[in-house]
Specification:
7-stranded mixed beta sheet, 0% helix, 4-stranded antiparallel beta sheet, 54% strand, 122 residues, mainly beta
């Protein structure tokens, strides 16, 4: 089992920045793809970014968000710059199975955190 805990969400003005962190415990996430998804109430969960041997980003966040991982600390971060009101959502960290590759499909991730709220005001 892998437990994931997100932190770093909050309220920020448009154009500002936030860094989300995801701390993993239990089994290592070193050999797993890690992803960030977001969800607005009433809508489906959508892909934001993922990292394994490479990184992948949703078109809507390319050039503004950066995903990174620290294998020694078993953490994954999402640096979010130039935030827009449409980035407002609950952000979820996800871990894939062993030796998984980056994927934009929620069904390819086995473990999920509880989520952290990001609100961007205009």
């Amino acid at each position: 089992q892998v437990q994931l805990v997100e932190s770093g969400g909050g309220l920020v003005q448009a154009g500002g920045s936030l860094t989300l962190s995801c701390a993993a415990s239990g089994r290592t996430v070193t050999s797993r793809a890690m992803g960030w998804f977001r969800q607005v109430a009433g809508n489906e969960r959508v892909f934001v970014a993922a990292i394994s041997g490479r990184t992948a980003y949703a078109d809507s966040v390319k050039g503004r968000f950066t995903i990174s991982r620290d294998n020694a600390k078993n953490t994954v971060s999402l640096q979010m710059n130039s935030l827009k009101p449409e980035d407002t959502a609950v952000y979820y960290c996800a871990a894939g199975r062993y030796y998984s590759s980056v994927s934009n499909l929620p069904t390819n991730y086995a473990y999920w955190g509880q989520g952290t709220q990001v609100t961007v005001s205009s």
